[in-house]
Specification:
The chain is of the alpha+beta class. 48% of the residues lie in helices and 15% in strands. The chain contains 43 helices and 30 strands. Helix 6 packs across helix 28, helix 19 packs across helix 20 and helix 23 crosses helix 27. It holds the Pfam family RabGAP-TBC.
């Protein structure tokens, strides 16, 4: 590329001059490519790789120099010889003669520099719409990444880091490239090159650890091996980016959501680091936004704009609290430096005034924000207050253009009429009244609604229990569901209306579980409560079809409905399923399995004396799923479990982990004495049944779990508030960010375990249907799935959800289209060859596509591969025959699929036998011949196979001609003739042609008429291969046979018109004769042999439509030739093909190994 001229003092240092003229010099870097300059070249090449010298200096450059000057100027550089040569030729053709006119060297230098700068400016102007904000240095790194690893342009590089890779005990210094779908390493030391490529989707473990020799190491583990990287300049940044990219890959495996770059990021500033790509900034912004949303429980689409240090005046304690202000599209948030001091959420929809107050020594750069509920928040010590005010004003303008539903607070939060009279005095009611008063006083002092100050005192009130009539309001507030409900007025009603009367798998499961949802509670013992539960669950199933409905959602939702209105319960369920318990309620309960793994890690750390015992009994996996999925609602008395839900909505998942650990700790001695899992579950069940809420004003509700336990001695009562307080005292040190780190580690393990389970289930299902062994099927499934994933990476705009649906049965979860099938066909199928595989693969794919949806699943793929590898001769020939009966080309997708379904229905309606196969007409027979010739073009016995094919072709031609003699045409009505002409595309009778001959009255099998019409409509023949005559020794009989076969592959009209095809001149007379309907051939010398060539021969346009052969004739003819029989019965080494496919897997434009590529060394 052209660059702004930079001066160079030493032009020859580390460079080799390849071209030169009086003004310009083209140079190549020593150590690059072949002939790199001996030892000096090796040292330079190693230095360029190890050191980050201008992104490992571009290997080619062009210098400018005036004859009498010692100063050189770099005006262009390039990563390839082709690129730099184009620049050099442009200089020679456009500038060289012009420069000779100038007399002053300074004028020449000024002119050249101005010309180059003009070219750069013009290029930037033309490419402005493609600007991706990447620096020139990073673009060079991208070019090198694609060249080194053969990646296509669709594979986006995120960043690269200098590090060492440990191969055994030897470190190799090089560069680690992190792209969206791959982690790659490259090293070049003293002429030895090392490369490593691993897909993120294949990683089973990614962690940062320390070893005895190395203080900090990043370990990347796959199913096959471990890879260690060390000596990073910033290992934390590298590891965080690797975590993000691995998470994206796991998300793609889980729900088929790939990565889409955010194009709305602000432009790169000039002061920004020179090695930061647009994708890296995008991922950094995503990570910050995720932490921001999790911290303040904000909607999933909220994006953080920025944050700054500041202080907040808190009126309740008259102090300035140090913390950070966060500004996003719809919210202003504050969090104190100390986690529990104070946090604040101000929705912009509530803001009325934003103004800059007067600065003072005590209060520098203050900012005042007022809200609709007459609260004023005072921030100070803002570094860039003017810019911040401008950003908030911009967001406010966007917010005011939206119309939000103003929600009136309910009486439970504002009423002051509640009194407890002596006549109705009840200790529980009195305590409940005191709780309400405490909350009302707190809300009066700290603010009501979303904009309240959240402090340690708020947390203490939650731990003491939320009053019954305030629970729904506070759940909405603490969970953040209130924000989504207010900003989506009418959304729930619309969903309910759309989902009414709709039936699918989710609604069936909902109906089945409706009466199992808190059946002991009176609210769900009548149709009103059941109907409300039905509407909420069905509405959510239609909102999020990826989740739909999962067991345990009914229990949680029924509790939400007890304390909130229908719409409020719906938005609480949204917050629960999509933000607070991610992936818990999908079809595989992945989130619950991940947190089960996190719980095991926490148990090992906090109750180590119990961990081994619990692992041996297998209890942790059992209890954690039931506890976590229902938030203890299914295992604890109702009035106690809602207290857990109170804490959960305020503190998040850490409360559930703390409580679970506390339950284990309280029963540690009893659990250590258990002999089996049943006894352990009984101990825990009795303990949880005994957890009571003595402050509850609710009437006693029988607990279903306790009713199912045995009649053993009950456990002493445990107060729920003491249990919760104890969990905070003993395990309160668990932090949310630590849980997220542990979740990432477990997510890799769980999703890869699910993938392995899927593979085993597929193999177990299909192993009895195929001769392949278990190991072969597992390897083939991995290859099949990899082909799907590769298309997900680089497949363009295809709809990936159609081809991967985790809710489908195992065998149908991954499906591939014809393009993907072609890649596997070349690697695995015995009939494939590099030159002519595409047409054959397309035919085979259409044959396997039974339902005509242009996709095949793994079972269909294996069924076809099994026949070609292990089928007998008849089965293989039947496959080859059926390929050519199918329609060849689709004109429109809908028509193609319609006809293909008709063909498949016809083929399924008859038992699979040779007699039921349709006849092959002349056009299809020509295509079959071309396929045979192309299959043999790279075989070792090529000549012998061509001889045999020619003999079989001649024999079949004669059979077809003889068959016509037995088809006696009878009288036909004019209507029949007109219909035949319309179907065949023949002209009217006043323009007779030889193509419209009398039709055979031979009865056809069912569906034969449809098949004939289908072929006539969609069939388009591909060019034939050239047929070349070579001198060889063959008998006169063989020569006659060969000439008959050759005659079938051409026509007299085309050969007479095209005199340029000299190799066909000997065949020109062997065309169809209209008078006697017989194929004639000129004599061919005894020493001629027919061979396939890479050229093409125009096919005949005058196809005899009465000519046809059957499969029995085709089979019998092939059996007469030993060479063909030997070819089709040749054994196939499938393991060798699979190994070759893994080693030669094509990624982009170069051949790399399959998934976990070995370090390859080349001298």
């Amino acid at each position: 590329m052209w660059i702004n001229p930079e001066d160079v003092l030493l032009a020859s240092a580390l460079w080799i001059t390849e071209r030169a003229n009086p003004y310009f010099i083209l140079q190549k870097r020593k150590g690059h490519g072949d002939g790199g300059g001996g030892l000096a070249g090796l040292l330079v090449g190693t230095m360029d790789v190890v050191l980050d010298s201008s992104a490992r200096v571009a290997p080619y450059r062009i210098l400018y120099q005036t004859p009498d000057s010692l100063v050189y100027w770099i005006i262009a550089h390039g990563t390839s010889r082709k690129e730099i040569t184009e620049h050099w030729e442009w200089l020679e053709h456009n500038l060289l003669q012009t420069l000779s006119i100038f007399e002053n060297e300074n004028d020449i230098t000024t002119f050249v520099k101005g010309k180059v700068q003009g070219i750069i400016a013009e290029y930037n102007k033309n490419q402005e719409f493609k600007e991706d904000d990447d620096t020139d240095k990073f673009k060079e790194a991208i070019a090198k990444f694609r060249k080194l690893f053969g990646m296509p342009e669709e594979e986006k590089l995120v960043n690269y880091y200098s590090c060492s890779y440990w191969k055994g005990k030897v470190p190799r210094q090089g560069w680690l490239y992190l792209s969206i779908n791959h982690v790659c390493f490259y090293s070049y030391l003293l002429g030895k090159e090392a490369k490593l490529v691993v897909r993120w989707a294949d990683i089973t473990q990614l962690d940062k650890s320390a070893t005895l020799l190395l203080p900090e190491v990043i370990r990347v583990s796959t199913r096959a091996r471990h890879h260690l990287f060390s000596v990073f300049l910033n290992i934390n940044e590298t590891f965080q980016l690797a975590e993000q990219l691995a998470n994206i890959a796991m998300r793609q495996l889980l729900d088929n959501k790939g990565f889409e770059q955010d194009r709305s990021l602000p432009k790169l500033k000039r002061k920004s680091p020179q090695k930061v790509s647009a994708l890296k900034r995008d991922l950094d912004a995503r990570a910050k936004s995720e932490r921001y949303r999790a911290l303040f429980r904000l909607p999933k689409d909220e994006k953080l704009d920025g944050h700054t240090d500041c202080t907040l005046w808190t009126p309740f304690n008259k102090r300035h609290i140090l913390g950070q202000m966060f500004v996003s599209t719809n919210y202003i948030c504050f969090n104190g430096k100390e986690e529990t001091v104070c946090s604040l959420i101000i929705p912009l929809r509530e803001v009325t005034i934003v103004e800059k107050a007067d600065s003072s020594n005590v209060l520098p750069s203050p900012l005042s924000i007022s809200t609709k509920n007459r609260m004023t928040f005072l921030f100070a010590n803002l570094k860039d207050r003017d810019f911040l005010v401008q950003r908030i004003s911009d967001f406010l303008q966007q917010t005011t253009s939206k119309i939000y539903l103003e929600r009136e607070p309910t009486g439970s939060l504002t009423s002051s009429d509640d009194e407890v009279t002596l006549r109705d005095f009840n200790p529980k009611l009195a305590k409940e009244f005191l709780k309400e008063q405490a909350w009302k006083n707190h809300l009066t002092e700290y603010g009501q609604g979303v904009c309240m100050y959240r402090t340690e005192k708020t947390k203490d009130l939650v731990l003491q229990g939320i009053p019954e009539n305030m629970r729904g309001e506070l759940w909405l507030l603490f969970s953040g569901a209130i924000n989504e409900m207010v900003t989506h007025p009418g959304y729930y009603e619309d969903l309910v209306e759309k989902s009414m009367g709709q039936y699918n798998l989710a609604t069936e499961e909902i109906e089945r579980d409706l009466h199992r949802s808190l059946p002991e509670h009176p609210a769900f013992q009548n149709e009103m409560g059941i109907a409300a539960l039905r509407r909420v669950l069905t509405a959510y199933a239609f909102r999020n079809p990826n989740i739909g409905y999962c067991q345990a959602m009914n229990i949680v939702t029924s509790v939400l409905l007890l304390y909130a209105k229908e719409e409020e319960a719906f938005w609480l369920l949204v917050a629960l399923c999509e933000r607070m318990l991610p992936d818990y309620y999908n079809t595989r309960v992945v989130g619950a399995l991940v947190d089960q793994g996190v719980f095991e890690e926490l148990a090992r750390e906090y109750v180590p004396q119990l961990y081994d015992c619990m692992q041996d009994l297998g209890v942790i996996s059992t209890i954690s799923l039931s506890w976590f999925l229902t938030l203890f609602l299914s295992v604890m008395p109702f009035e106690s479990a809602v207290v857990v839900v109170d804490c959960f909505f305020y503190e998040g998942i850490k409360v559930i982990f703390q409580l679970a650990l506390s339950v284990l700790h309280a029963n540690i001695h009893q659990l250590l004495g258990c002999k089996d899992d049943g006894e352990a579950m009984t101990v825990l069940g009795r303990y949880l049944d005994s957890v009571t809420n003595k402050d509850s004003t609710l009437p006693p509700i029988p607990h279903l779990h306790s009713l199912l336990t045995d009649n053993g001695e009950p456990h002493p009562e445990v107060d729920i508030f003491k249990l919760v307080r104890s969990s905070y005292e003993k395990f309160g040190s668990i932090r949310a960010d630590v849980i997220e780190q542990m979740r990432f580690k477990q997510r890799l393990r769980v999703i890869q375990t699910i993938e392995d389970t899927t593979k085993r289930n597929v193999v177990r299902t299909i192993v009895t249907e195929t001769p392949f062994g278990i190991d072969e099927l597992e390897e083939l499934f991995v290859l099949f799935k990899t082909e799907h994933l590769t298309s997900c990476y680089w497949g363009g705009g295809t709809n990936l959800s159609e081809r991967h649906d985790p809710s489908l049965p195992y065998l149908e979860q991954y499906r591939i289209n014809v393009e993907q099938f072609r890649g596997l066909f070349v690697l695995l199928f015995p009939w494939a060859n590099e030159a002519h595989s595409d047409p054959l693969a397309a035919r085979f794919f259409r044959l396997l596509d039974h339902n005509g949806d242009a996709l095949i699943n793994f079972r269909e793929f294996i069924s076809g591969l099994s026949v070609l590898c292990y089928g007998d001769l008849t089965d293989k020939l039947k496959i080859l025959y059926k390929m050519h009966v199918l329609p060849v080309k689709k004109l429109q997708t809908s028509d193609y699929r319609h006809y293909l379904k008709i063909w498949n229905q016809d083929s399924k309606s008859n038992p699979e036998s040779t007699k039921n196969l349709p006849k092959l007409n002349q056009g299809q027979f020509i295509e079959l011949c071309k396929t045979l010739y192309s299959m043999f073009s790279e075989d070792l016995a090529e000549q012998e196979l061509y001889h045999a094919t020619a003999t079989v072709t001649s024999l079949l031609l004669e059979m077809g001609e003889v068959g016509k003699m037995f088809c006696c045409p009878g009288p036909r009505s004019q209507d029949h003739e007109d219909r035949d002409r319309d179907r065949e595309g023949c002209p009217p009778p006043d323009r007779p042609t030889a193509d419209c001959s009398a039709r055979s009255q031979e009865p056809a099998e069912p569906g034969a008429f449809q098949q004939t019409r289908l072929n006539e409509t969609l069939f388009t023949t591909a060019p034939l291969q050239d047929v070349r005559l070579e001198e060889d020794q063959s008998s006169p009989k063989e020569a006659g046979t060969l000439s008959s076969a050759a005659a079938m592959l051409t026509s007299d009209d085309e050969t007479k018109d095209d005199t340029s095809v000299s190799s066909y001149s000997v065949l020109s007379a062997g065309s169809h004769e209209l008078d006697d309907n017989k194929l004639q051939c000129e004599d061919i010398a005894d020493d001629t042999v027919l061979r396939g060539d890479r050229g093409s021969l125009p096919h005949s346009t005058s196809i005899d439509k009465d000519w046809a052969i059957t499969f029995e004739q085709f089979l019998a003819s092939v059996l007469t030739e030993h060479a063909l029989v030997q070819y089709f019965e040749k054994p196939v080494d499938m393991l060798a093909r699979i190994t070759n496919a893994k080693n030669m897997r094509k990624v982009g434009r170069t051949s790399l190994s399959f998934s976990d590529y070995e370090i390859s060394l080349s001298a």
